[in-house]
Amino acid sequence: MKKGFRCFSSAIAAVLLIAAVQTAGARARSVSPEDRLSISQPRYSGTWKGNDLSVVYSYSTNQGQMTLSGRVEFSYSMVMGYVILEDFRLSAVLLDENGIVLEEIGLATEHDGFDPIPFNRQISLPPKAAYIAFGYQGIAVDAGKSGQGRTSFWHDPVRN
Question: What is the Cα–Cα distance from 12 to 23, expressed in whole angstroms?
């Protein structure tokens, strides 16, 4: 009985040690300060500018809820250089006061042209939400003389 108990205890200790090492090695996903937008005011309107597009947005918060609306406006070089937009996704990343990711939420998708893309979402805010960040990805297609050229574009504010 004692030998079986020691073996069982050793196995549990090994599992706990492995779990502790994995937890210590895991880093929280975060967003750098330059990509964070404060959501401390009850109402706010602004524009976030990325390399390929701007997000014109407004939000209002009330009792743990946020209404986030706005539109994606593509840069002049995107509008003039490409004719087709594929697999576009805009997301909002909710962050705590240290920039640690609390939640990621899809805001808009589009599979057509480069006209402004509207969005409007009702979001339940996590209790410690202090900032928001925007991320996007898509594929731009041109129709040049040599056929269709495809260019992936993205901005992912989240760092591991």
Answer: 16
Six-digit token string for 63: 């009792």
- Tokens linked to 148: 């269709």
What pTM did the predictor assign?
Answer: 0.81
Backbone angles phi, psi at 153, to 5 degrees: -140, 150
- Give 36-47 pLDDT, tens digit per residue: 999 999 999 999
Residue 54 has phi, psi (to 5 degrees) of -120, 150
d(CA 41, CA 130): 10
What CATH number does the domain containing 137 carry? 2.60.40
The answer to whether residue 125 is domain-embedded is yes
120 is a domain residue: yes
Is 93 in contact with 63 (CB distance < 8 Å)? no
With respect to residue 74, please indicate whether it lies within any of the assigned structural domains.
yes
What pLDDT is attached to residue 146? Answer: 67
Q: How many structural domains comprise the chain?
A: 1
Q: Which of 115, 87, 119, 89 is nearest to 104 (CA)?
A: 89
Confirm whether 11 is domain-assigned: no
Residue 128 · residue 97 · CB < 8 Å: yes
Judge contact between 109 and 37, C-beta under 8 A.
Answer: no
Q: Structural domain of residue 134, as residue ranges?
A: 30-159
